[in-house]
Structure formats: structure tokens, C-alpha cells
Amino acid sequence: MDKIYKLALSFINGFGPVTIKKAIAYTGSLEAFFSEKKQNLTKIPGIGHAIIQKLDRKSALLHAEEELRFIEENEIELAFYLDKNYPQRLLNCYDSPCILYYKGNADFNASRQISIVGTRNASDYGKEQCLKLVKDLSAKSVKTSIISGLAYGIDICAHKAAMQNQLPTLAVVGHGFHQMYPAQHKKYAEEIIHNGGAIISEFHSKSKFDPKNFVRRNRIIAGMSDACIVIESARKGGSLLTAEIANSYNRDVFAYPGRSGDRFSEGCNFLIKTNQAHLMDTCKDLDYVLGWEDEPKAAQGIQAKLFVDLSEEEEAIIAVLKKSEKTSIDIICVECSFPMSKVSSLLLKLEFDGIVSSHPGKIYSLNP
């Protein structure tokens, strides 16, 4: 029954996280909140008659029973804000979610957690900076978790780089587990879980797809991290909003400077110019501000990455990629006489092994 009560919180209309936490603190427990008389709840600061009129706890409990069946069928876990598995960094954020849904076995309370965000229209320069940053973080410590939003551009680049460098990565999404957005990133979500990371959401399976949800998602990305790094961003957008939220949570914010006049450098330059972000040049800047010391990987972990056993099919694909700097997936299919499904699967594996890089338009290249 305890799990039903926790799930029901996602279905309480008119009550946001701050209000729900107040109500539970006032009543003393989850169960008491669902049994307390409505008129008594109006005594709680911030809860007036207008909010109480919207309160339908019976309906919330019925929805929670349906949701319980859904999460059990789909192997989804819960993290309630009073539970030990809840991200402890979020407890310092006044508007953090009361409950999180997640898939995966990642540690939400790793000793080092960094969020990396940026434009969906990432340039080659932005991707290179992202890859280099994560690689450098990996060389310094195996304890660093990379957090982002599974979106196009810098987000997905950060997740891929984390997996390539054997770092856990947490993807915070703006929808329930009944869907995946963008749909093309479903394969990466599965790989994140498979590689010891997790997909996290505060939204239940009946949540309607709403762009505003991604704004709410950003506060989780900011709150779960020790520092937020903006790699490329326009003057307006989700990345700057995430940086703003991170500052409000007293998190350190870093931004990579860009060329004057470059649209997707305007946001980063603005953050630096207005003292809302530290200028980020190398990983050492992060170490200096956060006071982190190096914790090198064991030699065995690094050595294992140097030797990758390739199948004949993978070697055939690599042979095609060696012919030119960048190659489309269609050409690879023709040259290898493999179906598209097989080539996509093999390229994905090679990408996670750090051998191949993907580019917009289903273009691929060998890593140097």
C-alpha cells in the first residue's frame, strides 16, 4: 500500500511538489495525508480553499493502482523523496520532485556528478569539446556520473561519450515511460541502461506530451549535479534555462566561450560576460573550482579499452569507412551487402566501442 500512496502523488491535481511536501510534513505521513480531512489541510500555509477544491485523493489512488501494474510490467523503479535511493542532491532543491520513476541500476548519489547541456544543433566543434571533456573526466576519475537530457545535439553526445569512456550516465526525460522522445534515441536509452546508467522521469505513464515538461525536466538535470556545463547554446533556450536553475540551486555553472557572432555561442558568451558561468577551457578549470583531485583509473581498465575484438562483419564496415573521411549508412549497406537493420546495429556497437562516430544525416566516420 505504501507504494500506491507514493504513486498517487503523481496524480494529485493542483498540488505541486512544494505543496505536497508541506502537506506530508503537516499530516506526519503519506497515509495520513490521504486520510486527513480536507478542512484540516487548509490550515497548511499555501493551501487555500481553491487548491482543496481540486483535491481528489480517491481518484489519485485509483490511477495509482493502474500505474503500479504498468511499472511492474515494465520493470520501472521508484525513488520517493524520503527514501534512501532518492538523489540526495535534489533534497537541497525546494521544488524537487516528490517521486521519480527510473529504469537502470545507476547510483544517483555518486561522489561526482556533472550535467552537460547544450544546443540540439551541435557543431563539430561543440561535439569535439564534449567528447574531450568526458574523456578527460574519465581519465581523472571513474566516480564521475554524466547527466543530460537524451535530446539531439550536445545531450546525446554527452551520453555516448560517457559510455565510450566507461562512465555511468543518467538521462532525464520529459515524459513517462510509455514513450520515448526523440524516438530515434530509444536505442541509446537501452544502451544507457545496459551500460550501468539509468533513464529518469518524474512523469507517469498517463502524462500528456507537453513541451513544458522539458522545462520541468531541466531542474532535475541541474539539481542532481555538482556543476552544470554548457557547451554550445543560443541566447535563448533550454540550456540557458538549465544554467539559470543551476545557479539558483547554488551549483557551479561553466560555459565554453565561442566566436563572436556565432549564434550557438551567444548563450555561452552571455553567461560568461554576465558572471553567471565560469569560463571553461579545459577539465582543469572544473578541478580548480570544485576542488577535485585526480583519481586515475586502474591500468587494467584502460588497457582493456585498447583491444576490441571485431567480427568479420564489423571489419567489413570499417574497411568501407577507411575509404573516405565520412560515409553515409546507405553506401555502407551497398558496399557490404548488409541490410540496413544489421548495419545500424553494428554501427551502434562500434560507436559505443569508441571506434566510429555518427554525424547528422546518418553519416559515419572512423575515430582517429
From TrEMBL:
<feature type="domain" description="DprA winged helix">
    <location>
        <begin position="309"/>
        <end position="362"/>
    </location>
</feature>
<protein>
    <submittedName>
        <fullName>DNA-protecting protein DprA</fullName>
    </submittedName>
</protein>
<dbReference type="InterPro" id="IPR036388">
    <property type="entry name" value="WH-like_DNA-bd_sf"/>
</dbReference>
<comment type="similarity">
    <text>Belongs to the DprA/Smf family.</text>
</comment>
<dbReference type="Pfam" id="PF02481">
    <property type="entry name" value="DNA_processg_A"/>
</dbReference>
<dbReference type="Pfam" id="PF17782">
    <property type="entry name" value="WHD_DprA"/>
</dbReference>
<dbReference type="InterPro" id="IPR010994">
    <property type="entry name" value="RuvA_2-like"/>
</dbReference>
<feature type="domain" description="Smf/DprA SLOG">
    <location>
        <begin position="79"/>
        <end position="286"/>
    </location>
</feature>
<dbReference type="InterPro" id="IPR041614">
    <property type="entry name" value="DprA_WH"/>
</dbReference>
<dbReference type="InterPro" id="IPR057666">
    <property type="entry name" value="DrpA_SLOG"/>
</dbReference>
<dbReference type="InterPro" id="IPR003488">
    <property type="entry name" value="DprA"/>
</dbReference>
